[in-house]
Amino acid sequence: MTEQDCIFCKIGKGEAPSTFLHRDDRCFVIRDIHPKAPIHLLVIPLRHITAVAGLAAGDELLVGHLLTVAGQAAKREGLAENGYRLVVNQGVDGGQEVAHLHVHVLGGRRLGAMG
């Protein structure tokens, strides 16, 4: 998938509709359109990175920022007290549906064991 074909890139550029819960110069947060929990957010970097394997030296600050924003979004959604799950799916076997790195924030109910 190229940046031109990527729905997350289009959303980030304002070329596809979505409601931003957060947006800054490095990432944005939206609600997942196919939620797997009562609250299911996506934290998406503006830069097109297809997977964790596509991260380069120097991307530690970006990854840290994504996790910080995920925690802030979870707190705003009222998930901080009872807990939530952060997930990064990688590749087809890992459940990644859009080839653009993103962090899922899932909560709002007790989540079952993964595996």
SSE topology:
Blueprint: H1 7-12, E1 22-23, E2 27-31, E3 39-45, H2 60-76, E4 84-87, E5 103-107
Relevant terms:
20% strand; HIT family, subunit A; 115 residues; five-stranded antiparallel β-sheet
Describe this structure in words.
With 115 residues, this protein is an alpha+beta fold. The chain has one domain (7-107): HIT-like (HIT family, subunit A), CATH 3.30.428.10. The chain is 20% helix and 20% strand. It contains 2 helices and 5 strands; from the N terminus they run αβββαββ. It has a 5-stranded antiparallel sheet with strand order 1-2-3-5-4, with helices on one face. A hairpin with a 3-residue loop joins strand 1 and strand 2. The protein is globular. It starts with 6 loop residues before the first helix and ends in an 8-residue tail after the last strand. The relative contact order is 0.23.
